[in-house]
Amino acid sequence: MPIPADPGSPQQIHSSAAATDLEERYSVEKKLDLSQKSYSQGQLVRRRFIRHKGAIVSLAFLLFVTAMAFTSIGYGIIPGWWDKGFILTSAQVNGGRPTLELWPPSLGEHPFGQDTIGKDYFALTMRGTQRSLIIAFTVGLLSTLIGTTIGAIAGFYRGWVESVLMRITDLFIVIPLLVLAAVVGQYAGGIWSLAVLLSVLTWTGLARLVRGEVLSLREREFVTAAEAIGTDSGRIIFRHILPNTIGTIIVSATLAIASVILLESSLSFLGWGVQPPDTSLGLLISTYQNAFLTRPWLFWWPGMLILAIALCVNFLGDGLRDAFDPRQNRTAD
């Protein structure tokens, strides 16, 4: 008669450790199958997204930067908690150098320093971050709506409708984006008009992606069934087809936001984006590029923010792609 193994024996401990390691490496779907629980699609997406550590950290940092930019100096008639403005000048403290101290933690009088005429650079940088974020997220939203609509209509109706819409798309694609944006940027009267003009130029990539998805989905059985019972085309597109492309749309929107951050910075650096007396991160780099050797903090603060925001949005898009695409069953590292 076999003798049961001692629960505390090395064999049992090794077996238990191996089982634990195997379970940790299961994908979210496999873990849910083991638990025998029922979850909605939204809960599955949320669980997969939370498992992506890079996306969670990036989201937290992006929310922190956004909150800091809009609460510090205020927005519109809403006042902020920072007592200095981005327009007023004052006497330079410590030669204009940053007064920020990491240990012991202290902001000081001017944490990011002062520019060459005594403006508080923290307030200037927060103002620039505000404008860059507003333009980026506005363009991301509007270009997503335009690209999704054009791509869905072209993919569903095909024929001459698809030919006309895709030739228009090709026309926008063949012209270099920066050149086209520089031309239209000269006619922008403010950040909102600049955001609208950039939205008209940056929808082409998503339109092609959505068109390809719709061409595949329109041949599926649920679309045929909807057509058989007399459902109109608009309802089929927006209630049955587009919800199945939501992963592609959301990921493309996040990547568009990162691209627009860099595009707006490039335009402002060249003098064709946000115009003085307003400012943006790209305009700050352009304005103080000559002070790189003598006052490097005037260059590094906006430069690091542009880099950090673009990286965070890209990591966020990567996490959303893994969350919405069930084929991306990554195992734990």
TrEMBL record:
<dbReference type="InterPro" id="IPR000515">
    <property type="entry name" value="MetI-like"/>
</dbReference>
<feature type="transmembrane region" description="Helical">
    <location>
        <begin position="164"/>
        <end position="184"/>
    </location>
</feature>
<keyword id="KW-0812">Transmembrane</keyword>
<feature type="transmembrane region" description="Helical">
    <location>
        <begin position="298"/>
        <end position="317"/>
    </location>
</feature>
<dbReference type="Pfam" id="PF00528">
    <property type="entry name" value="BPD_transp_1"/>
</dbReference>
<dbReference type="InterPro" id="IPR035906">
    <property type="entry name" value="MetI-like_sf"/>
</dbReference>
<feature type="domain" description="ABC transmembrane type-1">
    <location>
        <begin position="129"/>
        <end position="317"/>
    </location>
</feature>
<comment type="similarity">
    <text>Belongs to the binding-protein-dependent transport system permease family.</text>
</comment>
<keyword id="KW-1003">Cell membrane</keyword>
<keyword id="KW-0472">Membrane</keyword>
<feature type="transmembrane region" description="Helical">
    <location>
        <begin position="241"/>
        <end position="263"/>
    </location>
</feature>
<dbReference type="GO" id="GO:0005886">
    <property type="term" value="C:plasma membrane"/>
</dbReference>
<feature type="transmembrane region" description="Helical">
    <location>
        <begin position="56"/>
        <end position="78"/>
    </location>
</feature>
<keyword id="KW-0813">Transport</keyword>
<dbReference type="Pfam" id="PF12911">
    <property type="entry name" value="OppC_N"/>
</dbReference>
<feature type="transmembrane region" description="Helical">
    <location>
        <begin position="133"/>
        <end position="157"/>
    </location>
</feature>
<dbReference type="GO" id="GO:0055085">
    <property type="term" value="P:transmembrane transport"/>
</dbReference>
<dbReference type="InterPro" id="IPR025966">
    <property type="entry name" value="OppC_N"/>
</dbReference>
<keyword id="KW-1133">Transmembrane helix</keyword>
<protein>
    <submittedName>
        <fullName>ABC transporter permease</fullName>
    </submittedName>
</protein>
<dbReference type="InterPro" id="IPR050366">
    <property type="entry name" value="BP-dependent_transpt_permease"/>
</dbReference>
<feature type="transmembrane region" description="Helical">
    <location>
        <begin position="190"/>
        <end position="210"/>
    </location>
</feature>
